[in-house]
Structures
1.
Amino acid sequence: MRYYIIAGEASGDLHGSNLIKGLLHTDPEAEIRFWGGDKMIAAAGSHGTLVRHYKEASIMGFWEVLKNLRRIGRQMRFCREDIAAWHPDVLILIDYPGFNLRMARFVHTHRWPDPDKRPRVFYYIAPKVWAWKEKRVVKLREYVDKLFIIFPFEIEYFRRHGIEAFYGGNPLMDSVSQRPAVTPETAAAFRRENHLDERPIIALVAGSRTSEIQYNLPNMVAVSRFFPDYQFVVTGVSWLDRSLYDRYLGGSDVRFVCDKTYETIALSAAALVTSGTATLETALLNIPEVVCFRGSGISIWIAKKLVKLRFISLVNLIMDREVVRELIQEMFTPAIAADELRAVLPGGSKHERMLQDYRDLRTAMGEAGASERVAAEMVRILTEKQPQ
């Protein structure tokens, strides 16, 4: 079968890669065409064709989206034309709702040569409509043939809105379980390869977009000056120019490691993390963290008007209580962040409690294998739909 997959950011690339592995396990003859990144390229191998890398499409923030509407429009037109020309058996959408919901609508409204052979639309990792833009539920009901969710609390939420979603677990459990355990030998090798000294590491996970780096890294670097006995390491990404990081690292003792976010976090005593999937990844790796987030004033103002959640980090949302401290906008100052970091480091007042909360989190998340279970269900549905 022919699978067209769209992932528009780094986390989507990660989950898309594991989904592709599951699809190829269940359907070894699969043909895959996709928007994604390096992980999806590696997973698809000779079965896949990259249409566009997510680094060309990823835009974050209300104001940033408004400034790039023309560019986004061009990308959408290209994507619609590419889907129509290739005519897959199924369109699989991974998160990225502003773009992907429009592609779902296109598939349902396009005049296909044979209406009975319209591509199915599967949505994997549902838009967070329980947080904001709940009206998107209507679009999910109308334009998505099957919804695949990754949080257990979403089952009942979508059922109340007339959608029977499939829950196979959370794919981050797959990603974490596949990582090799840290040993003294691997830790020493990592330090040598990245020119790090013997001090304990604190990871600075400032995000994967230019705007996230610009707004968050300066204060993260400032926090390092409170902890001379620790070694602060920025987890950089190769699709952003190194000069962007150097602009804020100059004059500091903060080190830079590129494209090794998991490895850096796993070897750390604690981490400062911007909001997003990385907050959950850090918790699943059992590393104490403080969530720190700044954005443009306009984007934060709009978010406060529209978002109806008590928390911004996935850890706290899943547990429905404050497990990790969230320092947002004006609360994210170097001094406040330093105080919170001291509390979660070994020997700190919040350290043991956070590790216990992490154990509860892993229990709530369930077992690994989500990607393979979801892929098997997708192929089962598609097989049933095939004409006899």
2.
Amino acid sequence: MKRGEFDDLMAFATIARTRSFTRAAADLGVSPSALSHAIRGLELRVGVQLLARTTRSVAPTPAGERLLSSLDPALREVETGLDALSDWRGDPSGSVRITTFQFAAYTVLGPVLPKFLRDNPRVSVEVDIDTRLTDLVRDGFDAGIRWGKSVAQDMIAVRVSPDTRMIVVGAPGYFERHQRPQTPADLEHHNCINYRFKSTGGYLPWKFEHEGKEFRPRTEGQLILDDGELAEDMILGGAGLGYMLEPQALPYLSAGRLVQVLDDFSTPHPGLHLYYPSQQVTPALRALIGALMLKKRDPPLPPWSARPFDIESDSDSDKE
């Protein structure tokens, strides 16, 4: 389509709908004479008369009606596309789709979203809970929240939680029957409750570090589970040792329902990050990022408060 032809088609469609050069000119912000000139040029190019004109009225010819029926859907799509650009301008509005996993949803989004939605009534947020790492562009998400180690290098990432740790815990009743492990190697002689990822079929690996040396002991036991809530219940019930995020275990440790071991070997786990694929973000997403940024939150990571434990899928997970 040559330059100016779209404007001429828009002019024709407006005149055909309003049945008036004067009203169409007012709608388009041009003079009636300019519209008349544009329509004459369009009719010359297409080789047929599109509008029947009299001194008192104007109406589309049969050829004009056919052209108008073809133009209407396309022009509506163009108008819809232009309206959608408002999501990138002005006050926050529109929708934000986020993919994350349960722990991040409860600890990062949960404390912030109620106030954010009240403050931004024109914004809607959709949260998809999935332990799998999701392709944001392919699956139509605006952003994701994952551990820092999981975020691809080509993504823009904003920290939304402090670092935390994976720790080994057991119920007091378990330690009445078993000695406490002193090193990660001692876990090979304990009943460890292993967590299997539904998405990959791999196990959550128990990783440790001490004085620059990494340890990945073999952890075996009577239970292999793929449900976080059940795994937590089994740990609390004394069925075996568990490997949990420290914020999730803290309420139970404080209440004396769990005991932590191998503290010197538990190392920081990279914090949660909100990430997105482009610096071009809508005002809605920009506002949500501002609300979630770690430095603006107090407390930055609230207690887990006995929620079921849940870990995102780890590309480094052990396989059968």
